[in-house]
Amino acid sequence: MPVKIKRALLSVSDKTGIVELARSLQNLGVEIVSTGGTYSKLSEQGISVLKVEDLTGFPEMLEGRLKTLHPFVHGAILADRKKPHHLKQAEDAGIKLIDMVVVNLYPFRQTVSKPGVTIEEAIENIDIGGPTMIRSAAKNSRSVAVVVDPADYGAIAEELLKTGGEISDDTLFTLSVKAFQHTCEYDSVIFNYFINNLNAEKKKSSINVRPYLKIDCTKAEDDFVESSAENAIISVSETFNDVLKLSYEKIQDLRYGENPHQKAAYYRASGAGPGVFAKSLQLQGKELSYNNILDANAAFAIVKEFEKPCVAVIKHNNPCGVATAPTVTQAYNNAHFGDPVSAFGGVIACNCTWTSDAARFMSDKFVEVLIAPDYEPEALKILSERDNIRVLKIEFNLKDYLEKLSAGSSKYRGFDIRGIDGGLLVQDLDASVYGSLEYKVVTDKKPTIAQVDDLIFAWQVVKNVKSNAIVLASAKSTIGIGAGQMSRVDATRIAIEKAGEKAKGAVLASDAFFPFGDSAQIAIEAGVAAIIQPGGSVKDEESIKICNQFEIPMLFTGIRHFKH
Predict the structure, then answer these.
(1) Do 3-191 and 440-556 share a fold?
(2) Which one of 316, 393, 411, 445 is the catalytic residue?
């Protein structure tokens, strides 16, 4: 049955819209009870409101830590209106029932996000009374309306006005679900903060914290646009837990999925921090498609691991051109001409400010999406003349990202989450910083310094190519890529065919070992001058022998980079 709202308790940290809601309640004759700052704000606006201590007969104390933890509050919320003995006990105790609880919680996430915040400051921003009231009201949702989201105030006020002060069963239940979500997210943020501090300080104790995996699910601060799950921020202690809990917020519905007959939506992991793809801001162009989002995310994942200006051109989730250079324009030029045919209609990412020169170079090319951390004003002006290009800006600090990633910071630890029929697969992201590779030269011939630079570049790129993957590179630019083939030798042939004459003197990277010597043989015959691969095949000696025969250096990394 609907609940008639006669008395409401309002106690909010986020005071957005609270005055308007209180006024609507007052106009319907609802008695309003409040605490601290909420009481002051409502009183200042001329709204008739009681202090909680007027209800309980007990003052706030312990610097505000103790306000609402009292039977006159929780008895008033928890009494089941359908049970006469509950109502009798409340009446005998002098408890006046509360029919609506409007509460949101201390800004814990905002507090711990500030530079230099101490654990003591964090502790003081852990809300106790708020979550308790929310949970009490949500448990008793058949009798009490619990409102935690300011975005719902307007709909609540409208329903009360239409019904003469009543809230329907459907609304009560929906509000209770949101309330439990609110407290769940709040507790997860607190846990993540403290477990990260525990891990960072390597506390020694005979008490073990259970291994835990959970996406940080705080509410996002801005109005825009996570994401692909592979950019989710996840807190982890030691290993994967038996239960995985995910929390995502919908960014938008998409026109369709990979194909027009598939429905699709775009979600971001709640609480995703800055620098992730799904927190990018679209500056111009029509709505992003499902495939645009996949490709743009893949493109930016490549460039953000390079220190120098880097540009990647993506088609169908594979790079068709990647290059680093002293300038953005030069990097884009080299990436584009790595495979100009495939670059048509591609998605482009850059790891630094997009320049006006690069925008001019793009002016005669068909590009679906461009994403960069920033843009020169003149570049945006040039791009604005082509409204068919979707332009995205991402809040991303390259230096900070690379430093934290090199140090193994948990803040930048990413996970790849993929759906399967009836389940999920979760793994570490295959993230690495350009130049951090350790390798072993396994041939008689040693590579030159220039070859080593190109080999490491090609190795960094090949891990972002669908397996089986082969990358040919020269002067820190790709010149031929073989992707997603069922056999490695076919991937090698495709990469060589794309490179053409440019294969002579180039280097080759393979994401996994050569199962036979045929790939090395084909590459060398095409003019490839150096090779890098993981090694580990029972036929390694066959490949090494071929390279020694033609005096071609080959490096083993001991690391495989499959990308299925």
Answers:
(1) no
(2) 316
